[in-house]
């Protein structure tokens, strides 16, 4: 595994899930694999789960760690080719990335989209420049259009909790007070399309995701219809892709409630977190035994650990 940017970097998705579940039972099985190796974690944006779970996974593999908040701890970085750097960016990615590559054997990058220029965001301008210039394997800690470590953890959770060979999994849009990226739903959709699940996406009109992520999923604007007989409900807000970065709808009727969960086949409730209680989902659902959001977040360690193992095996 050269880089981990999307499901395409997982040669065998099911094998990755099985290895991750094995790590869950034996977390220190490869405790020395990362000995004398260093991983750098660069955050352009906030994080709790990604920041802590990737550090724990690295520790389980004996990796040394460096963590940096880009822009606060380091210089502001310029990504424009040919830029005349007379603004507030002190360093160009063409220097910063290879220098980081001098210190780190693997580099994780979190960089959210700007949500104003769709072409720029969907070209993955930031993470692709790190891939081009660092000279080391790059792991996405959520990029402009994907969040693969989250999606692998989501699939691990579904695999360990499913009660039938091919569960019905529903990705439902839910309201939010801010315009959020499409990265999590995009990534969840492409991993579900790569898994053996009956996958349904439901959202209001105007929130269609990019076709390359929707794939063969069934799509409906009727949320109640989608919830019928579902085994997993995955709630997430995202801003419009078609009217890029806009909030078109804050209709509270799309919030996930116990009433709606009663339409399902006793479904588990999933969310990548952080979640806005009583905006995205009502307290009663999050506080019910059907909510698996904490177990799902715990699986981020095994998701990161199995990816780091694959990357380490490619550089040792
Ligand atoms: C893991 C989710 C990170 C981010 N969420 C927020 C609230 O910014 C998002 O929606 O992409
Ligand atoms: N789900 C997730 O990636 O959480 P953080 O943004 O807190 O890392």
What does this structure look like?
- With 316 residues, the protein is of the alpha/beta class.
- It has helices at 13-25, 49-60, 93-103, 118-122, 125-133, 148-161, 183-192, 211-214, 223-227, 258-261, 283-286, 293-315; strands at 38-43, 64-69, 77-78, 91-92, 106-110, 138-140, 168-173, 198-202, 218-220, 232-236, 268-270.
- The strands form three sheets. A five-stranded parallel beta sheet has the order 9-8-7-10-11. The protein has a four-stranded parallel beta sheet with strand order 2-1-5-6, with helices on both faces.
- Bound molecules: N-acetyl-L-norvaline (AN0) and phosphoric acid mono(formamide)ester (CP).
- N-acetyl-L-norvaline binds at residues 180-181, 183-184, 272, 274.
- Phosphoric acid mono(formamide)ester is lined by residues 47-51, 142, 150, 272-274.
Question: What order do the helices and strands come in, and which of them pair?
Answer:
Blueprint: H1 13-25, E1 38-43, H2 49-60, E2 64-69, E3 77-78, E4 91-92, H3 93-103, E5 106-110, H4 118-122, H5 125-133, E6 138-140, H6 148-161, E7 168-173, H7 183-192, E8 198-202, H8 211-214, E9 218-220, H9 223-227, E10 232-236, H10 258-261, E11 268-270, H11 283-286, H12 293-315
Helix pairs in contact: 1-6, 1-12, 2-12, 6-7, 6-12
Bound molecules: N-acetyl-L-norvaline and phosphoric acid mono(formamide)ester (CP).
């Amino acid at each position: 595994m050269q880089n981990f940017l999307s499901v395409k970097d997982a040669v065998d998705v099911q094998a990755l899930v099985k290895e991750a579940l094995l790590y869950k039972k034996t977390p220190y099985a490869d405790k020395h694999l990362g000995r004398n190796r260093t991983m750098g974690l660069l955050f352009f944006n906030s994080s709790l789960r990604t920041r802590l779970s990737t550090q724990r996974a690295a520790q389980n593999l004996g990796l040394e760690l460096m963590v940096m908040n880009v822009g606060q701890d380091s210089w502001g970085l310029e990504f424009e080719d040919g830029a005349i750097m007379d603004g507030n960016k002190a360093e160009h990615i063409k220097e910063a990335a290879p220098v980081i590559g001098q210190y780190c054997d693997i580099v994780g990058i979190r960089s959210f989209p700007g949500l104003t220029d769709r072409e720029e965001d969907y070209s993955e301008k930031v993470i692709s420049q790190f891939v081009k210039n660092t000279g080391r394997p790059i792991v996405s800690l959520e990029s402009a259009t994907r969040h693969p470590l989250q999606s692998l953890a989501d699939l691990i959770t579904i695999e360990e909790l499913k009660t039938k060979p091919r569960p019905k999994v529903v990705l439902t849009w839910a309201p939010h007070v801010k315009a959020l990226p499409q990265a999590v739903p995009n990534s969840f959709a492409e991993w579900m399309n790569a898994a053996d699940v009956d996958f349904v996406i439901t959202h209001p009109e105007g929130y269609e995701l990019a076709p390359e992520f929707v794939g063969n999923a069934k799509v409906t604007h009727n949320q109640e219809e989608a919830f019928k007989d579902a085994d997993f409900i995955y709630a997430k807000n995202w801003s419009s892709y078609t009217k890029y970065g806009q909030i078109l709808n804050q209709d509270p009727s799309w919030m996930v409630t116990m009433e709606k969960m009663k339409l399902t086949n006793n479904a588990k409730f999933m969310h990548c977190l952080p979640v806005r209680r009583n905006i995205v989902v009502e307290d009663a659902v999050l506080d019910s035994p059907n909510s698996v959001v904490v177990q799902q977040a715990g699986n981020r360690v095994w998701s990161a650990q199995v990816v780091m193992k694959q990357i380490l095996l490619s550089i040792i």
